[in-house]
Design goal:
alpha+beta; Phosphorylase Kinase, domain 1; Transferase(Phosphotransferase), domain 1; about 35% helix; kinase; ATP-binding; non-specific serine/threonine protein kinase; EC 2.7.11.1; nucleotide-binding
Length: about 500
């Protein structure tokens, strides 16, 4: 074809980002990052379906299957069809009957709920979109959702599904009725070396499971170590976790140390006991335990509880997975000694003590620790470059003499030191529900992502409002539905 008679208009000039306003540029970045996450979920779901088919085909090749081959193939197809229908079914708040509030935090709340369809009990975490956006918590929400969705470990609280409406985000998780490790510390004040070894070993398995997924938890503390009905632990509350994705990038700890100290050194975020007036000795355990109860109140704040945080997060140094092992050392210290190693009456002083740990870290003279226990703690609460686990991961810590004789692969088959006594599947006796406001239905009041027990999350307003791009774009691809059990 002769093209001489055709005239083509010049291509329009490519417009630079400066040609648009900040709102348009921010929305473009969010769309790019979240579209990536959205299609990643689609690819993952297709791969998982293919793997299930290959696994079923391998099972059918077993001669022992015999005449049941056709029946198993048909059941597999029915399960897949049921799951596809489940994916198309809209999940909404009206599908659940609220039972009791079991946790609150700064941006949300967690309720014990019963699903109308199957009658099962779950923990439903609710987060306010407006609070997530206005307080720049979007990376925390995405990190928690991704960590729980990607995990299929017995050491991590199971996420069944996530959904949303115009005002809120929801995470439906398994209900762990045993409460958390902090509740056990409040009840028993101090653990023996054997009991500490048991919980430390299980925490190592839980932290290792998250690290294997490529996530750093960054908020390992007794409140986030949940106890199941058999007395074994599961790791929860991934609101501060960091994956190596742009959508997980945030600066939660930026400028914490630049904040002014509380006036006159008065307590901040503590309501009952001034720790600075208490000598940290064995004889004062009752007062120290009262301070520990008041420490739970800090989890309702946006800052959270800093007692177990590694110094690298405050000083602006680079860090990696080893920061979670510092937190493990701090928890082991508290289990054996009775209080955290850098306990102070306000978060500002705690930050300062942690950053200056070489001058502030010590073992009390009146508390005896076995040399192996003391060495393990010192090997975890130390410089990141020489910290146990910084080179060989969890395997380094498992090989420490303190864990001699521990079979890490059979921990969940061992009887736990403390097993909760439960009256029913709705039993909440292991949670401080009496300290939380209870009401009928789902509250329209406060709600937070940072909770004291992993089921916690609070304070925001869930009133209906106009749906804007700022409330839609950040949450594209947030919905998740697990194949196993959710639709059974």
């Amino acid at each position: 074809m002769i093209m001489d008679n055709f005239e083509f208009a010049p291509a329009p000039p490519q417009r630079c980002p400066e040609a648009y306003g900040p709102r348009a540029n921010n929305n473009q970045k969010r769309c790019f990052q979240l579209a990536q996450a959205f299609f990643k979920d689609g690819v993952r779901r297709a791969r998982e379906r293919n793997e299930r088919q290959l696994d079923l085909e391998r099972r059918l090749e077993d001669p022992a299957v015999g005449p049941r081959r056709e029946q198993l193939w048909k059941l597999g197809g029915m399960s897949e069809a049921k799951y596809l229908r489940f994916l198309r079914t809209k999940e909404e708040l009206s599908n659940y009957i609220p039972i009791k509030t079991i946790g609150k935090g700064y941006f949300g709340e967690v309720k014990l709920v019963r699903k109308k369809q199957d009658g099962k009990v779950y923990a439903l975490k609710r987060l306010a979109k407006t609070e997530m956006v206005s307080h720049e918590q979007l990376p925390r929400v995405r990190a928690e959702r991704d960590a729980l969705a990607e995990s299929d470990s017995e050491w991590v609280v199971k996420l069944y599904t996530t959904f949303q409406d115009s005002t809120s985000l929801y995470l439906l998780m398994e209900y762990l009725p045993g409460g958390d490790l902090m509740a056990l510390l409040i009840k028993y004040q101090i653990f023996s070396e054997d009991i500490t070894r048991f919980y430390a070993a299980e925490m190592i398995m839980a932290i290792e499971a998250i690290h294997n997924l490529g996530f750093i938890h960054r908020d390992i503390k007794p409140d986030n170590i949940l106890i199941d009905r058999e007395g074994h632990v599961k790791l929860a509350d991934f609101g501060l976790s960091k994956g190596f994705s742009k959508s997980h990038d945030h600066s939660y700890y930026r400028e914490l140390l630049q904040k002014p100290a509380p006036p006159n050194n008065k307590p901040a975020n503590r309501n009952s006991v001034n720790l600075d007036e208490i000598a940290l000795t064995v004889s004062n355990r009752a007062q120290i335990n009262e301070w520990r109860r008041s420490r739970r109140l800090m989890a309702y704040s946006a800052v959270g509880t800093p007692d177990y945080i590694a110094p690298e997060l405050f000083t602006g140094q680079g860090y990696s997975f080893e920061i979670d092992w510092w937190s493990l050392g701090a928890i082991i210290y508290e289990c054996l000694v009775g209080w955290p190693p850098f306990a102070s009456d306000n978060s500002y002083d705690t930050y300062r003590k942690i950053v200056n740990w070489r001058q502030t870290f010590f073992f009390p003279d009146d508390v005896y620790l076995h040399p192996n226990a003391a060495h393990l703690i010192r090997s975890l609460i130390c410089d990141a470059s020489s910290r146990l686990g910084s080179r060989g991961g969890a395997a380094e810590i498992k090989a420490h003499p303190f864990f001699a004789g521990v079979d890490f692969n059979s921990l969940r088959r061992i009887e736990a030191p403390f097993r909760p006594h439960l009256e029913s599947d709705e039993d909440t006796s292991c949670f401080p529900v009496d300290e939380l406001p209870q009401g009928e239905g789902f509250s329209n009041g406060p709600t937070n992502t940072n909770g004291t027990n992993g089921h916690q999350a609070t304070a925001s307003n869930f009133q209906e409002e106009e749906v804007t791009p700022e409330m839609c774009l950040p949450f594209i691809g947030y919905t998740f539905k697990r194949f196993e059990k959710t639709f059974m």
